[in-house]
């Protein structure tokens, strides 16, 4: 029967009544997160550049913790060190998306991100700014249902990170 549905373009987009006990994400949320993230990964560096430039525009104080803090924003997009960092940010998020079906792995990744940033004394409010910025950027190219699923996921992601910044 699945083959017949697939022939008509109907695919399994996940259930809405099976929320994960840790994350609260349903299989539908996970499906929407994975499929929408695939679009981001078509151009990870450029999307990372867009994300961090928007972060610095909306929350200028966040730039002060980066090694490229003295480079003017209008020059950052061409700076190799900045672009490399943007790429690594996107791939860090991608590892979270890849682990979305394995809650214990996902939590482990998030805890590590929190611990790594604690060592650098990154304030929690900077992560709150990043969360807002991600939603703002995603809203420019994702559908409402995808944004809703990302909001649910980002709330969990940044809570676990914040808990490990303390």
Automatic annotation (TrEMBL):
Sample GO molecular function, one term: heme binding
PROSITE patterns in UniProt: GLOBIN
Pfam families linked: Globin (PF00042)
Segments passing through the bilayer: none
Residues covered by the Globin domain: 24-166
GO CC entries: extracellular region; hemoglobin complex
InterPro entries: Erythrocruorin (IPR002336), Globin (IPR000971), Globin-like_sf (IPR009050), Globin/Proto (IPR012292), Mb-like_M (IPR044399)
Keyword tags: Heme, Iron, Metal-binding, Oxygen transport, Transport
Family: Belongs to the globin family.
Name of the molecule in the record: Globin domain-containing protein
Organism of origin: Diabrotica balteata
């Amino acid at each position: 029967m699945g083959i017949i549905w697939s022939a008509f373009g109907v695919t399994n987009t996940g259930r809405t009544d099976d929320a994960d006990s840790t994350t609260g994400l349903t299989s539908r949320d996970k499906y929407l997160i994975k499929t929408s993230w695939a679009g981001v990964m078509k151009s990870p560096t450029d999307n990372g550049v867009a994300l961090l430039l928007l972060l610095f525009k909306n929350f200028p104080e966040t730039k002060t913790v980066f090694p490229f803090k003295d480079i003017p924003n209008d020059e950052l997009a061409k700076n190799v060190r900045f672009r490399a960092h943007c790429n690594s940010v996107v791939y860090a998020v991608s590892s979270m998306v890849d682990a979305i079906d394995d809650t214990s792995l996902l939590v482990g990744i998030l805890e590590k991100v929190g611990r790594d940033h604690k060592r650098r004394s990154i304030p929690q409010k900077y992560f709150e700014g990043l969360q807002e910025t991600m939603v703002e950027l995603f809203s420019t190219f994702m559908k409402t249902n995808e944004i809703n699923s990302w909001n649910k996921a980002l709330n969990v992601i940044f809570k676990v990170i914040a808990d490990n910044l303390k």
